[in-house]
Structure formats: C-alpha cells, structure tokens
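User: I've been trying to design a sequence by hand for this structure and keep getting stuck. Would you show me what you'd pick, starting by listing the structure so we're on the same page?

Assistant: Good idea, let's start from the same input. This is the structure you sent:
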C-alpha cells in the first residue's frame, strides 16, 4: 500500500518527447531509473520506502507506460530524458539506477549530467568474452523478431536468455500480465543500445567524478557480481556493497536502507 502523497506530472525531453514521471515524499531529490521492462510503477515499492527521507522521482523511460517515443532511438536521447526529469527535480539530484537503468545512469553521469551522488544495482555488463558473444547472438535474434512484428517472441527470447525455464515461460505467456510485458518488448532493443558491446566501459567510467555506490546481490550469478566489482573498481570514487541473499530482482525493503545510508551519510 502506498502511504506517501504522490503526484503525476509530465515534462518534455530535449527532442520534444513526452516524459511522464511521479513524485512522492519530501527531502533531497532522488531520481530512480528502471531497468528492462520496467516503468515508474515497477519502482513504486522502492520509491515508497525512500520517500520517508527523500523527494523521489520515478519515470516511464521513453517507449514505456505513458511516456512518448520519438524515432530514431539513441542512447543520448535517453540521457536527455533523465536530464529533463532532473531539471524538474530542481536542477541537480541524487540518482539510483537498476540493471540496464544502472548502465544508463552511469552513462549520464559520465556525460556530465547534474548528478550529486549515484548508486547502481547490478549493471548487467559481462566480463567474460564468450558470454558477450552469446549476448550478441541473442540480441541479433531478438532484433530480428521485433523487425518481423513478433514482440511476444522477442520477449520470450529475452526471458529465456536471462534464465527463465521453458515451463515457467510457458506459464507466464498464459497470464494477463503477458500483454503488458509484450507492449514493452520493443524497448528491449533500447536497453541493448544502452549496454553497448556488453563490456564494462572502463574508460567512460573513469570520467565519472561523483561518489558512486555499486551494489550486487550475494545470491546473484558469479558473473553478475564480478561485473559489479569491476564497475566499482573503474570508478574514481566507487564503492562496492553486497546484499546477502539477494538476487537480480532485489527486495525493495532490503535495498532501501542501503541507499538511505549512502545518500544521507
């Protein structure tokens, strides 16, 4: 149940794209950047917990939820979308990104967006060249399915690639929520643009001057945790923290105290 007051607003990105965001709580401005298949609603449970200490902004990334989508896509446009939300938050903000949203937030920070401090949870880079090659193969199949007008099959390709068993995938396709997820499937291509070639962008991370907390889950795959450590090591002011027992789908009530300690410390 949501306890804090919440307002729904809209702004425009630099290219005129409508970006819809929610605002809740009081205190220093904190913007949450969601990952693949996520909308502002996906981040609501975490936002509610953080709203006890911060004014929290969640937003629908372009192509998702109520936000618009202007072709052609470019990662630079997504950074401008985040900049537009930060402008609404007062011109400078704390930022937290999850998964591909973490990679986007790191990219934005390296580009010089007015980010006071940054935290990221498991940016899904790959440190293993063979796994990066497997990702490229999957991405080619996913893009081909989207080009053929088969978003449901593209979504299934993604979910299989991230480890969902076939029987669980079959069951998910029978549920009403599948249609909502399928509507977001075209934005999977956007997330892959954000991730670049999938390797840890050490040179770009070296340009991030803000304090950054990189968090991973103790029960996440070893490759995911190794990538988190590599990201933290590449950041001039990076710190690494592991949340015992957590996986890539981190529990908001476990993550929130870590973020509060970091941002308020």
């Amino acid at each position: 149940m949501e306890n804090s007051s919440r307002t729904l607003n809209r702004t425009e990105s630099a290219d005129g794209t409508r970006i819809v965001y929610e605002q809740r709580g009081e205190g220093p401005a904190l913007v949450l950047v969601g990952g693949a298949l996520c909308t502002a609603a996906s981040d609501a449970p975490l936002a509610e917990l953080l709203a006890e200490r911060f004014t929290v902004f969640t937003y629908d990334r372009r192509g998702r939820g109520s936000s618009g989508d202007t072709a052609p896509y470019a990662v630079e446009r997504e950074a401008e979308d985040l900049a537009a939300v930060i402008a609404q938050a007062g011109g400078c903000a704390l930022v937290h990104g999850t998964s591909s949203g973490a990679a986007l937030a790191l990219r934005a920070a390296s580009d010089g967006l007015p980010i006071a401090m940054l935290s990221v949870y498991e940016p899904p880079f790959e440190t293993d060249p063979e796994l990066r090659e497997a990702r490229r193969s999957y991405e080619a199949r996913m893009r081909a399915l989207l080009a053929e007008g088969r978003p449901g099959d593209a979504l299934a390709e993604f979910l299989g690639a991230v480890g969902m068993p076939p029987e669980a995938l079959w069951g998910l396709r029978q549920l009403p929520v599948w249609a909502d997820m399928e509507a977001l499937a075209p934005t999977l291509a956007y997330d892959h643009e954000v991730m670049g070639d999938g390797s840890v962008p050490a040179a770009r991370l070296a340009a991030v001057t803000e304090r950054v907390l990189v968090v991973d889950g103790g029960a996440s795959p070893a490759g995911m945790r190794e990538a988190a450590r590599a990201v933290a090591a590449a950041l001039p002011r990076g710190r690494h923290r592991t949340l015992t027992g957590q996986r890539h789908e981190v529990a908001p009530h476990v993550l929130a105290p870590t973020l509060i300690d970091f941002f308020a410390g």
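That's my pick for every position. To get oriented when you compare it with your attempt: The chain has a mean pLDDT of 96. The chain is about 45% helix and 20% strand.
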